[in-house]
Amino acid sequence: MALNKQVFDAVIVGGGGSGLRAALQLSEAGYAVAVFSKVFPTRSHTVAAQGGVGASLGNMQEDHWLWHMYDTIKGSDYLGDQDAIEFMCRKAPELVYELEHFGMPFDRNPDGTIYQRPFGGHTQHFGQKPVQRACAAADRTGHALLHTLYQRNLRSQCQFFVEWMTLDLIRDREGAVVGVIALEMETGQVVLFQSRVVVLATGGAGRIYQSSTNAFINTGDGLGMAARAGIPLEDMEFWQFHPTGVAGAGVLITEGVRGEGGILLNALGERFMERYAPNMKDLASRDVVSRAMDQEIKEGRGVGPDKDHVLLKLDHLGEEVIHKRLPGIREIALKFASVDPAREPIPVVPTCHYQMGGIPTNYYGQVVVPRGQQHAEPVSGLYAIGECACVSVHGANRLGTNSLLDLLVFGKSAGDHIVAWLKTRPEQRDLPRRAEESTLARLAELERDDAGESVAQLGADMRRVVQSHAGVFRTGDLLREGVEKMRELSERAARLRIGDKSQVFNTARIEALELQNLMIVAEATLVSALAREESRGAHARDDFPERDDREWLKHSLWYLEGSRMAYKPVNLQPLTVESFEPKVRLY
Amino acid sequence: MKKVMKFSIYRYNPEKDSKPYMQDYEVALQPTDRMLLDAILRIKALDDSLGLRKSCREGVCGSDGMNINGRNGLACITPIEGLKEPVVLRPLPGLPVIRDLIVDMGQFFKQYHSVKPYLVTHSPTPQKERRQSPEDREELNGLYECILCACCSTACPSFWWNPDKFLGPAALLQAYRFIADTRDELTRERLDDLEDPYRLFRCHTIMSCAEVCPKGLNPTAAIGKIKAEMVKRMV
Question: Which of A37, A94, A147 is the best substitution to test chain B (most B C-beta atoms within 10 A)?
Answer without folding.
Answer: A147
